[in-house]
């Protein structure tokens, strides 16, 4: 009787094992991802490479708040650990073949109950350069989704993966997707680097179900926006190796399976690192975004050095070399800089922006860009970069710079300088003519006289009879001007805000006559198609005005020499005065 009962129990156990013992839980991604496309910017659709960037972000979306990793069974739930990871190829060489964990599910505590979820939106491809392609070589891009599982509760497969995801959370900012690829380099922690390596090693011991998505550059340029891949759980007898069984389950449409979550890949495109929203006319880029300070301080992904530090990381510094380089030396220095920026994976457009900013920094301003020869020496070797340089900053053309005009900044200053500089330079040329000065001045001033006045502290200049231009005495003001021999004039400043007026600008300057005589000039200009001088006031040039003129910076011209002669005369006058005081007898 006892033997019969034992046999019955063994039979029940055998039947139970045949029903449940050999049934296993498998996890795998679907093989038919669903993709969507959106509106494509013209630059992206029509481009052929090195003209922008793509960022691929992964997000794991559970179908519900509860993710059961196994069914309730007679024996209780399996203690399942699940890791989702991505492998990319073709986007960035330094990322090719690297496995990036994007989510971890731990079912060891709750068995078939809800598994704890560790996941973040992850930039699996951060700002990859859109490479060149052709009809015959469209590019070989791929993204592999791995769904790795293990029911071995004695081995902690996912602990390291969760640590890497936690480290990613430390560097995420402002809701942006974490750039976990190369996260160890970003955080700068050697322990984390070891953890990432250990994670990849451990995951090799897990059962892997995977699917590969093949892409090309033209497919991205046609506006690919999202790809969604379902991840399933299915129960089945093993029957063969786990890898082969997963392939069978993926291929069998009749398999009963449960969707646990969806992996969504989002594709975003940017034309520039510095102005990501830019898509239209390049000369309308945000000036603040492409300012030298913003550009040179930009920190590339997974780098400890900003662009200025990267370009200037050798001795002697490239910044110092470029500062005085011309001709062949300039070409060589630019070649080094262009090579460094290309190695960083920058687009041609961004290389042009960085190069312009870097050379501006080295030469103390943008005046070099007005020298076509310098632009040619630097950028002839990179025509695809030069195209963008000209679209953003305009074609390099010589600019007539009046060296005697004070330095300044802002639109009002530039508008004033563009009017006053040429007007006073041409006025000076007419005023110092050797002969026929009234005629030359009248012709230049559009046959109009200049109202000339003198401050009370100086003696007014008187016109001489031989300066009459005609019996009608058309130009009394010009007659006064030519009555005194003018050697030169310079140091053009605006001083008063009202002188910046577009319609009626003005300026102060120094007039230097023969015998080292100096006066203060103050003119008003009637601006228009032909800008001409309407009035000129001549006053004494005292020491306060001298110091005021000396306080400005002038890019060139005669101002420095005029001020030196004025200083020399002031010193001579002072010495003469001291000598007279010493020579006077005491009372």
Shape: elongated
Helix content: 25-40%
N- to C-terminal separation? 155 Å
Strand content: 15-25%
How would you classify the helix and strand content by structural class? alpha+beta
The beta-strand count equals 16
Largest sheet: 6 strands, antiparallel
Radius of gyration: 39 Å
**Roughly what is the average pLDDT, rounded to an integer?**
80
Q: What oligomeric assembly is this protein in?
A: single chain
Low-confidence region ranges: 1-21, 169-177, 182-192
Please work out how many helical segments DSSP would assign. 19
Keywords:
587 residues; alpha+beta; single chain; five-stranded antiparallel beta sheet; 19 helices; disordered N terminus; six-stranded antiparallel beta sheet; 23% strand
Task: Explain what you see.
There is one protein chain. The protein has 587 residues and is α+β, with helices and mostly antiparallel strands. Helix content is 36%, strand content 23%. It is built from 19 helices and 16 strands. It has helices spanning 2-21, 42-46, 159-171, 183-187, 190-203, 217-221, 242-251, 292-296, 307-311, 318-324, 327-343, 348-363, 372-379, 383-393, 411-431, 437-444, 476-482, 543-550, 559-583, and strands at 23-29, 34-37, 53-62, 81-89, 99-106, 116-119, 122-129, 141-150, 207-215, 224-237, 257-270, 451-454, 486-493, 506-513, 517-526, 532-540. A hairpin with a 3-residue loop joins strand 14 (506-513) and strand 15 (517-526). Helix 10 packs across helix 12 (348-363) and helix 11 (327-343) packs across helix 12 (348-363). The longest helix is centred in the last third of the chain and has 25 residues, at 559-583. It starts with a helix and ends with a helix.
């Amino acid at each position: 009787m006892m033997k019969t009962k034992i046999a019955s129990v063994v039979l029940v156990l055998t039947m139970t094992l045949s029903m449940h013992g050999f049934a296993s839980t498998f996890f795998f991604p679907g093989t038919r991802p669903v993709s969507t496309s959106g509106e494509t910017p013209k630059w992206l659709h029509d481009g052929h490479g090195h003209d922008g960037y793509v960022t691929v972000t992964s997000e794991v979306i559970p179908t519900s708040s509860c993710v059961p990793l196994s069914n309730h069974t007679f024996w209780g739930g399996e203690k399942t650990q699940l890791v989702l990871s991505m492998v990319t190829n073709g986007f960035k060489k330094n990322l090719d073949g690297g496995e990036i964990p994007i989510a971890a599910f731990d079912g060891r505590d709750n068995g078939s109950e809800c598994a704890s979820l560790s996941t973040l939106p992850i930039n699996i491809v951060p700002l990859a350069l859109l490479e060149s392609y052709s009809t015959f070589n469209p590019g070989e891009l791929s993204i592999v989704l791995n769904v790795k599982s293990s029911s071995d509760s004695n081995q902690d497969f996912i602990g390291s993966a969760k640590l890497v995801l936690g480290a990613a959370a430390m560097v995420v900012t402002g809701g942006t997707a974490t750039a976990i690829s190369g996260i160890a380099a970003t955080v700068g922690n050697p322990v984390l680097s070891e953890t990432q390596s250990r994670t990849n090693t451990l995951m090799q011991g897990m059962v892997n179900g995977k699917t590969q998505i093949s892409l090309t550059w033209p497919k991205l340029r046609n506006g690919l926006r999202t790809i969604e891949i379902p991840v399933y759980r299915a129960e089945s007898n093993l029957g063969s190796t786990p890898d082969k069984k997963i392939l069978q389950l993926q291929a069998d449409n009749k398999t009963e399976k449960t969707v646990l979550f969806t992996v969504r890949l989002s594709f975003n495109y940017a034309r520039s690192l510095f102005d990501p929203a830019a898509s239209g006319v390049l000369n309308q880029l945000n000036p603040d975004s492409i300012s030298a300070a913003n550009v040179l301080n930009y920190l590339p992904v997974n780098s400890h050095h900003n662009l200025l530090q990267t370009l200037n990381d050798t001795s002697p510094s490239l910044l110092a070399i470029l500062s005085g380089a011309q001709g062949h030396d300039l070409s060589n220095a630019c070649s080094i800089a262009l090579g460094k920026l290309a190695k960083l994976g920058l687009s041609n457009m961004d290389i042009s922006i960085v190069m312009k900013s870097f050379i501006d920094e080295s030469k103390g301003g943008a005046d070099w860009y007005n020298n076509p020869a310098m632009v040619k020496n630097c950028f002839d070797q990179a025509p695809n970069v030069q195209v963008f340089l000209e679209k953003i900053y305009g074609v390099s053309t010589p600019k007539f710079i009046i060296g005697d005009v004070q330095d300044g900044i802002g639109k009002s200053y530039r508008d004033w300088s563009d009017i006053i500089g040429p007007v006073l330079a041409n006025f000076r040329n007419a005023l110092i003519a050797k002969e026929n000065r009234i005629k030359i001045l009248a012709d230049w001033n559009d046959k109009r006289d200049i109202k000339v006045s003198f401050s009370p502290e100086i003696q007014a200049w008187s016109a001489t009879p031989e300066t009459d231009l005609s019996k009608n005495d058309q130009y009394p003001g010009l007659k006064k001007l030519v009555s005194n021999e003018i050697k030169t004039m310079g140091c053009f400043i605006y001083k008063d805000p009202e002188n910046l007026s577009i319609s009626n600008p003005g300026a102060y300057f120094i007039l230097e006559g023969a015998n080292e005589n100096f006066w203060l000039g103050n003119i008003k200009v009637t601006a228009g198609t032909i800008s001409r001088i309407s009035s000129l006031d001549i006053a004494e040039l005292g020491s306060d005005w001298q110091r005021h003129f000396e306080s400005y910076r002038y890019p060139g011209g005669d101002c420095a020499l005029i001020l030196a002669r004025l200083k020399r005369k002031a010193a001579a006058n002072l010495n003469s005065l001291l000598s007279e005081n010493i020579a006077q007898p005491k009372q």
